[in-house]
Amino acid sequence: MRNDMPLRIKIREKLDMAMMALLVQYAATSKNVRSWVSLGREDVGAINIIAGYMDQAMEDIASVGDALYDESKSFWELMKMCETALLSVKEFERAFNAWKPNDEKEKEKMAKTKIETNKDIPQSRSELNEKIAELGRNERMREKITIEMNEQIAKVKARYADDAKDCDLRIESLQKGISAYCEVHRDELTDNGKTKTVKLPAGTLSWRVCPPSCRLSKPEAIMESLKSKGLSRFIRIKEEISKDLILADPEAVASVKGITIIKGKEELSIEPDKEELEKAA
Length: 281
Prior knowledge:
The chain is mainly α. Among the domains are: 5-120 and 131-163, no CATH class; 169-197, no CATH class.
């Protein structure tokens, strides 16, 4: 093993933290896009440019992370790759900061514009169709962002789980070894059973009685067997109010306090045509 491996692991941890920060920033960006567009910022295509910068940054960070365990890579090569990754991150931040509204007066103006008029209210049937199509595109974009974010988070988790695998094996082996020693030397450690707690410089050993537990292999078969043997007292019956039956006959419970029947209200369901959106994409 290389003598600089601990340092490589630390660098990898910092890179993973940087990637997580980018994911959080990207999620915030996508969330703000929808609100900023409704406030008058119609440069929706800008998020695609920002996404490109971010994808490049994450790719560069991931490349460094993979190279950290490649013993053929020298430390100076790793440093060069780190510099490239950091530049990619800065490019992403530059693009994001140049696009987002950062002036308080501009924010106030945008908020005032939102109060005065909602630009997303269609003025004609054709505009209505355009708004529905735009809604579908934004929903697809949100789904894509969520999928990409979850994939990256899963990769980071898997990477840390892999790093912790050796620790898990050592923990299991050490626990078994310590338990075996304590079993053999219990009388010596506990002064012939006078105590169940032993304090050592490195930690404390304690013998505790675990409460009894009941395991059911086939609950349904066991339940039938208990009923046939007259042991129904071991079967717990849960009582609950049926809302479905109440809604089916609300007049019957009209005099019962605490029950309120809420009349159903009509809601508009907007479902963009996914097939048409895929054709247009």
